[in-house]
Amino acid sequence: MNRRAFLLAAPLGPLALARTAAARNPMGLVVHSYWVRAKKPLPPDFPAVSDPLALVAEAARVGAAGVQTRIPADADTKKLRDAADKHGLYLEGSVGLPKTDADVARFEADVKACAAAGADILRTVCMSGRRYEVFESADQFKAFAGESWEALKRAEPVAAKHKVTLAVENHKDWRTDEMVGWLKKLGSDRVRVCLDTGNSVALLEDPAATAEALAPFTVTTHLKDMAASESDDGFLLSEVPFGDGFLDLPKVVGVLRKANPRVRLNLEMITRDPLRVPCLTAKYWATMPALPARDLADALARVRRNKPPRPLPTISTLDHAGQLKAEAASIDRCLAFAAAKLAG
Fold first, then answer.
1. What is the mean pLDDT of the chain?
2. CATH number at residue 236
3. How far apart are CA 4 and CA 253, in angstroms?
4. Gap between the Cα atoms of 276 and 138, Å rounded
5. Pairing mode, if any, of strands 90-94 and 218-222?
6. In this structure, are residues 150 and 160 in contact, taking their beta carbons and an 8 Å threshold?
């Protein structure tokens, strides 16, 4: 797909509409929504957002409800808190779990900075990669699960001490039943879930069923819509602007709000090339040898049933300016959709 075709396929949503809806827009912004903007030097009309203060300013400009981002231990937390308060925005942090006992001090410093800035929910992950790419065997995944359990046990008392909630993302690492298992075993109100509405699709799960199962534990979200198309070794998966994919976002949000009326909705619209989900290869199944064949059949049927009306967006064919415009257009369209159809 060339640049012109892409821009026609994903037209610029009217920024004025997003701004007009600012007072009632339910969405916060995850810093990863600015995937393109974080990578290269920027023209003047695209201000940087990698600094938390800059992201707060951008969220206020587009009418978002808050932000989720990393807050460094050495951040000016008073200035950040004052900026968020000035604009009426909530703050959520993003922290890495303590992988060893020696790492607890670093983790606590990060938690303290987030709490001082006013962030009461801190998103975290057990693994940043995708299990079907990282691990070669079930034994490797078992070792990861054990290490994650120990990391969560180290983190929980620190979160309780500083009165924050850790929200663990379903990050293409855990199947839902695995995640629910350790959540119940840990049994702590200080360790909950950041539900990503798209990630579990890559593990052959129905996004509606994932939302139902994780809703009782969910305090915050990475809300996204998804589109998929078949490939030789499985399927390709893309984040797309709200309403362009196959997720029933109003239904998903309704399920989450029924379980937790205070759940936060954060936009994570990552503008990038489609992700490959090689579910027809042997390595994909290395960590899930007991998964029923019906899960694969259901996943492929879901892909075929929801064929996208146009090719999945291929961002790498655009120059940097085109990528920036495409990213901004997607964010604007998501915020406008949320204001119109997801307001509580």
1. 92
2. 3.20.20.150
3. 34
4. 21
5. unpaired
6. no
> Residue 25: which pLDDT band, with cuts at 50, 70 and 90?
confident
β 66-68/90-94 pair status: parallel
What DSSP line would sit under 20-70, residue for residue?
Answer: HTGGG--EEEEGGGGTTTTTS---TTS---SSHHHHHHHHHHHT-SEEE--
Helix axes 249-259, 207-214, angle to 10 degrees: 10
Residue 22: which of 67, 73, 59, 71 has the closest Cα?
A: 59
Nearest to 95 by CA among 131, 68, 117, 133: 68
pTM for the whole thing? 0.92
Task: State the DSSP code for 251.
Answer: H
Question: Can you read off the two tokens belonging to residue 121?
Answer: 């929910």
Give phi and psi for 128, each to the nearest 5.
-85, -15
**DSSP one-letter code for 169:** E
- CA neighbours closer than 13 Å in the CB half-sphere of residue 164: 29
Contact 91, 144 (CB under 8 A): no
Identify the three-state secondary structure at position 127. coil
pLDDT score for 201: 98
Quick one: DSSP state of residue 223? Answer: B
Please tell me the predicted confidence (pLDDT) of residue 39: 82
Range of the domain at 216: 3-341
d(CA 330, CA 223): 13
Quick check: 168 and 193 in contact, CB under 8 A?
A: yes
Q: Residue 258 carries which side chain, given as an amino acid letter?
A: K
CB-CB contact of 336 with 18 (8 Å): yes
Residues 6+ apart with CB under 8 A from 146: none
How much is the average pLDDT of 103-114?
98
Between CA 311 and CA 229 the distance in angstroms is 8
Distance CA 35, CA 324 (A): 9
Count of the separate structural domains present in the chain? 1
Q: Are 192 and 217 contacting, i.e. CB atoms less than 8 angstroms apart? A: yes
Strands laid side by side in the 234-240 sheet: 225-231, 234-240, 275-277
